[in-house]
Amino acid sequence: MIRVENLVKTFGGLRAVDGASLEIAQGAITGLIGPNGAGKTTLFNVVAGAYAPDEGRVLLDGEDITGLAPHRLFDKGLLRTFQIAHEFSTLTVRENLMTVPPAQDGETLWNAWFQPSAVRARERAVREKADEVIDFLQLGHVADELAGNLSGGQKKLLELGRTMMTEARIVFLDEVGAGVNRTLLKAIGEAILRLNRERGYTFCMIEHDMDFIGRLCDPVIVMAEGKVLTQGSVEEVKADERVIEAYLGRGLKNRPARTRAPEAGA
């Protein structure tokens, strides 16, 4: 579905993404992991149109979408969420959802003046869709709460809900579990799985919680120093010496056993 070919993005002299190539299969929940500074979020930003790459290209179902603006990618069904949720804090949960669908009838002065019945009908339809999303995510108890008053986990659920208000084909999730308590993290994971299995959503997610990744993702792609290091199942990448080395560092991996810090409980 998504094919990234030899992607390069530099900032000054730093090659944040350095010739990365990967594929995201339709219908999969793909994990993207790696140590801090590996280039994961920069790669997301290039694919999602926030940055133009210096080299390489991005394909969506064979169509070259390299460098397209985020709003044009939105129209093609490619969406992303952020590590820090971007809600409209002074709008309610329901109102946040209702702002998402594009080209609503009430957005033009002509329709507001001369076609008020069409505006009202469209608003009813959008509200019904928002209520369906609220029910799906079990957010009914906060539907009329200002989004700025939600917990971190509830804001992440709201961001996921906003992707449901349009015809999403692939959603990029940037650390959806960051700062979320275990109860809400479980709810987020279940919602992602349901969207994948019941509605055919394709996901690619950056995450540091390997238990969370293990429950949701197959395959898992590992990045290090701007490059794709390897990919496979969670078990395969956790056992890969290159992945261990990328996370722990060459010095720790190769240090004589007697100089290493003792194991917990030793």
TrEMBL record:
Q: Which CDD domains match?
A: ABC_Mj1267_LivG_branched
Gene Ontology cellular component? plasma membrane
Q: Which residues form the ABC transporter domain?
A: 2-250
Picking any one GO molecular function of the record gives: ATP binding
* Keyword Cell cycle among record annotations: no
Q: Does the keyword Iron-sulfur apply?
A: no
Which terms are listed as keywords in the entry? Answer: ATP-binding, Nucleotide-binding, Transport
Q: Highest taxon of the source?
A: Bacteria
Q: What Pfam family does this protein match (any one)?
A: BCA_ABC_TP_C
Protein name as catalogued = Amino acid/amide ABC transporter ATP-binding protein 1, HAAT family
